[in-house]
Design goal:
Shape: globular
Mean pLDDT: 88
Number of strands: 8
Order of helices and strands: HEHEHEHEEEHEEH
Strand content: 25-35%
Distance between the termini: 13 Å
Radius of gyration: 17 Å
Helix content: 25-40%
Number of helices: 6
Structural class: alpha+beta
Amino acid sequence: MSEHDTALQDALACVRVGSEDFDLGAEVAALRGHDPQVGAVVSFVGTVREWAQAASGSSPAIMELEHYPGMTERSIAELIVEARRRFNVRGVKVIHRVGPLAVCDQIVLVVVSSAHRGEAFQCAEFLMDWLKTQAPFWKKESAGGESRWVDARVSDDQAAARWGGLKAPPNVASS
């Protein structure tokens, strides 16, 4: 097994994609563990916010997230491998929910631990910027009896672009 394959397997253990909600406190505690080298833990929780079309609708607003099982987890794991290459971090955890979600529901959790806050903040920001643009999720908003697929935003692409390109993993064609 190559070094990249080993790193990818380790990263896959840090990814969870599913419909179940998560407990921020429990996830942070599990990532931090009792590692005496951890001096910083940074977490980001993304939630479903109300959008303009939903605010005027009479039925509850729903965001539905779809993905390709297996492909999505591998894509996120590749991002974690790249994040670990770029930043000196102790631990990473990414949880992304799929299925129908209501306004105020949690969608995504990124938790990073490191010896120093700067590395943890940068790593978490890098992961979120790339998750928004590279992870294979499709979002559909429904409210007031109408639905629409959500397009990528230019601002998300600009945020990801500041980090430069991702290093291509070896043997991508054979994966």
